[in-house]
Design a protein that fits this description.
- It comes from Sulfurisphaera tokodaii.
- Keywords: Aminotransferase, Lyase, Pyridoxal phosphate, Transferase.
- Helix 4 links the parallel strand 2 and strand 3.
- The protein folds into 2 domains: 233 residues, Aspartate Aminotransferase, domain 2; 134 residues, Aspartate Aminotransferase, domain 1.
- The strands form 2 sheets. Strands 1-7-6-5-4-2-3 form a 7-stranded mixed sheet, sandwiched between helices. Strands 8-9-12-11-10 form a 5-stranded mixed sheet.
- Helix 2 packs parallel to helix 9, helix 3 packs across helix 8 and helix 5 packs parallel to helix 6.
- The protein is built from 14 helices and 12 strands.
- It is an alpha/beta fold and 374 residues long.
- The model has no long low-confidence stretch (mean pLDDT 95).
Length: 374
């Protein structure tokens, strides 16, 4: 089954014949009929359908749904890491994820090494880790990790490779097929795609994900059935949305690269990107996030994001409508100025999430706002 058919095919409810998954808004189930589900924090039919869907899309043995992307990350790592475990991460990643590892996990006695994205492959060659955790496309500098090469070394070393593929989505990349052990998503972003739901997803082998699911039940990072329904609905248009988003983002990145008010543009589809060749080899599309630096100060950047008419200034991404954020004061505000400097997050950096609007309207919106800068 091809990808476009796979995302839209949902089946039907065998009991009622409903052609969309019902929302089972219940806390519990009558014994013995509902013994499979018992209590909705543990298993809910709507949520289970979503878990099965991400498993299908990622070509995994088992999927699990969570109350948020961070719920997926925390539940997975608290399942697989223990005091004394050695974990490797990279610096350029979502700020709250970075803090989870460098603060919370270290406080639990976990040894956490931090590398630049370009150093990951060399690091795993010289030191054995229990877990290697990477974003397939990093946030916000959009470094592309060579998952096939990394997974090969991890398997040789007996390391678990866990990937956050929020930016790439199952349409542009399938990390499990490329050798990763677990793939995680903030489903609030491109997968749900409408900026109206918070959810997380994970997929991998049945052995690993069964353990993670038990932790999810214990921690209570369980997804609400109505939120699960919204994610299932969003998945149906994932392929057509990503096709438009990939195309729009490429054109916008090329436009920004030539603008005289722009200092730097970060996008894997540009030949100037350090991982362009890797991206061409392992990605089917370069994604919907374009990061750029303007020629100016933090105040100029913050002022710029208020001047758009189509693009919305908001701390989110992956929706049908384009949004723009300022990493230093939004997504990566928990990092110190020194940490942001090491990563390469400048005060004049902006992260644009490209939607499905007409690309000419988006470019016109960017051009008018940038032209208004002194």
């Amino acid at each position: 089954m091809r990808e476009g058919t796979k995302v839209t095919t949902e089946g039907y409810d065998e009991e009622t014949g409903a052609i969309t998954t019902p929302i089972y808004q219940t806390t519990s189930y009558i014994y013995p009929i509902g013994e499979k589900y018992r209590y909705s924090r543990e298993v809910n039919p709507t949520v289970l359908k979503l878990a099965e869907k991400i498993s299908e899309l990622e070509e995994a043995e088992m999927g699990v749904a969570f109350s948020s992307g961070m719920g997926a990350i925390s539940s997975t790592l608290l399942t697989l890491a223990k005091p004394g475990s050695k974990i490797l991460i990279h610096r350029d990643m979502f700020g709250r994820t970075y803090r989870f590892f460098t603060d919370f996990m270290r406080n639990l006695g976990v040894e956490v090494d931090v590398a630049n994205p370009g150093e990951i492959l060399e690091m795993v060659k010289v030191k054995k880790y229990d877990i290697v955790y990477v974003e397939t496309i990093s946030n916000p500098l959009l470094r592309v990790i060579d998952i096939p090469a990394l997974s090969k070394i991890c398997k040789e070393n007996g390391s678990l490779l866990i990937t956050d593929a929020t930016f790439s989505t199952p349409i542009n990349q399938k990390p499990l097929v490329q050798g990763a052990d677990i793939v995680l998503h903030s489903a609030s972003k491109f997968i749900a795609g409408h900026n109206d739901v918070i959810a997380g997803l994970g997929a991998g082998s049945k052995e690993l994900m069964t353990k993670v699911d038990l932790m999810r039940r214990t921690l209570g990072t369980s997804l609400d059935p109505h939120a699960a329904y919204l994610v299932i609905r969003g998945i149906k248009t994932l392929k057509i949305r990503m096709d438009v988003i990939n195309s729009n983002a490429q054109k916008i990145a090329e436009y920004l690269q030539e603008h005289n008010k722009i200092k730097s543009v970060y996008y894997p589809g540009l030949k100037s990107h350090p991982d362009y060749e890797t991206a061409r080899r392992i990605l089917k599309g370069y994604g919907g996030v374009v990061t750029f630096e303007i020629k100016g100060s933090m105040n100029d950047a913050l002022n710029l994001i208020t001047r758009f008419k189509v693009i919305l200034p908001a701390q989110t991404l992956g929706g049908v409508n384009s949004t723009i954020s300022h990493p230093a004061t939004m997504t990566h505000r928990t990092l110190t100025p020194e940490e942001r400097k090491i990563i390469g997050i400048s005060d004049s950096m902006l992260r644009l999430s490209v939607g499905i609007e007409d690309v000419n309207d988006l470019i016109e919106d960017l051009d008018k706002a940038l032209t208004s800068l002194n």
